[in-house]
Amino acid sequence: MVTIKSLIVAYGLAVLPVFVSSSPLVPRYFYKNLLSRDNMTASTVMTELGRQLSNGSLIFGPDNALYPNATERWNTRITPDARVVVQPAAESDLGRIVRYCNDNSFDFLVKNRGHGTTDSLSTFSGIEINVEKLTGVTVRPDRKTATLQAGTVIGDVVNRLWDQGFVAATGSAACVGLMGAALGGGHGRYEGLYGLVQDNIVHYNVVLGNGTEIGVNETSHPDLLYALKGAGHNFAIVTSVVESIYPRENWYQKTYIWTQDKLETVFEALNTFHKSANGTTPPRMGVNYGSIVMNTSISTTEAVLAWGFEYAGPAADAEELLGPFNAIEALQVGSVEAPYPIISGADGTDCPGARRAIASVMTLEYNVTTQRTLYNLFNERIAEYPELAPSAYLWHEGYSTAGVQAIPSDSTAYPHREENHLLVFFSEVPEGSGLLDAAEAWAQENRRLWNEGQPDRQPQTYVNYAQGKDYETPESIYGYEPWRLDRLRSLKAQYDPQNRFRFFEPIVSGSA
Questions:
Q1: Which alpha helices (H) appear in 143-195, and where do they start and end?
Q2: DSSP count for the chain of H helices, then E strands
Q3: DSSP 3-state assignment of 439?
């Protein structure tokens, strides 16, 4: 067990847990604003803020051994400047931290797992509010909802709910923080049945930019509820939510590896499949994930198509839907029927950081000709830049959409309910390779080709996959209907007039 003494020995006095003083706090209106951006240090923040926080909270700076893990990002190309890290031990600390930052003109940024990849995050300099200590997962007495705290991680939520007999709509990657995903919508395996993560949240506990703590639901601040569901990063710190939960069930997974000569057949079958249940993907076929990727055990010069289908229910029911794909000759086929945490990879909560080039789009269907062009380009670029081969892939997320599309598009800020596919290019860029510009150019080529493959449509960008590039307009992220951004900006003026939340794909630029 980690003791206070061992922490002192390991990390020094600068990271002493903060204890609540037994004497009354000095009223805040007697405090003097003694600090400025120029002299923000862990010791000064500890002196001024530490006594206000709960027992177990931590405050530390870049010279502390805890700092690298607390500030690590999945995409190390993104570099927010966390001059001081504050780790609150209780939800009630968050309002105090925000009010302290406001009193001293310090910017603040909330971090959990650090998966945001937009360039706008790199404009931040100030106090990181690290919520990794707030990990509560509590099934409520009604046995229909659970309270989930700000620092919960998707895989941990899946496992802890499963152990109590339940599942919930979560994002798809086990190592990602639940709350960050939910603020932008939250795509996952259960959306065909229950909708996006945000669609299952019935109550938010939040801290506004001025430090006020409020509850948000259909009867309390319903206008803010609209904004939190799809544009939430711009409006508040979510300290916890109440989310709907459902009885647990086993899942079935079927995987295929196809060679390039099957490409047209595979994508034509996918287009048919995604319209096969009253115009949508069969709701229980939660997702098919696929990639165009190098598999050196098969070929070092030609990428393969690696695909997996995941079904909420027994194998026999899934196989009735998979006939068109079983009919396509594959190099490898695998299958497993297992509890949902195994199918979803819930134990895989470690996602190491690396420099990554990324670009993404959303589409209604696959343009088969474009997919062939992308495939050929993939092989060309790997031949040109072999250092990128181990990690580069064209990723295809095909979720069931019935539950998402059952919810009126104008009822939340999430604007992309009609989209069927999330398509993403990823490549890690080895340190010292000098290939970051080349990888970024390749990423943009892929995005351009995907969008040119749907010439009658405007580009669509999922906010959680946005990169903060000039070619990603606010309209592509938050919706092209003029009323959408107008409404969000009106709510922004009401709930965050000082624009304290402006570091993640901001809907308004600059600070007040």
A1: 154-162, 178-183, 191-194
A2: 17, 18
A3: helix
Residue in 8, 463, 37 with CA at minimum distance from that of residue 234: 463
Question: In degrees rounded to 5, what are phi and psi of residue 386?
Answer: -60, -20
Query: Per-residue pLDDT averaged across 180-192, rounded?
Result: 98
Q: Give burial (CB, 10 Å; 0-12/13-18/19+) of 475.
A: middle
How far apart are alpha carbons 312 and 249 in whole angstroms? 7
Label the pairing between strands 125-130 and 108-111: parallel
Nearest to 200 by CA among 208, 210, 190: 190
Consecutive H or E run containing 378? helix 368-384
pLDDT single digits (tens) 132-177: 999 999 999 999 999 999 999 999 999 999 999 999 999 999 999 9
Nearest to 202 by CA among 140, 167, 235, 244: 244
Find the Cα–Cα–Cα–Cα dihedral 53, 54, 57, 59, rounded to 10°: 10
What residue type is 86 in one-letter code? Answer: V
Q: Kindly write down the DSSP assignment for every residue of 182-223, as one continuous string.
A: HHT----TTHHHH--TGGGEEEEEEE-TTS-EEEESSSSSHH
User: Whole-prediction pTM value?
Assistant: 0.92
Partners of 62 in the β-ladder? none
Question: DSSP state, 429?
Answer: -
**Helix H or strand E segment including 75:** none
> What b/e sequence results for 92-112 when a residue is b if at least 16 CB atoms lie within 10 Å of its CB, and e otherwise?
ebbbbbbbbbbbbebbbbbbb
- Residue closest to 419 by CA, chosen among 448, 450, 462: 462
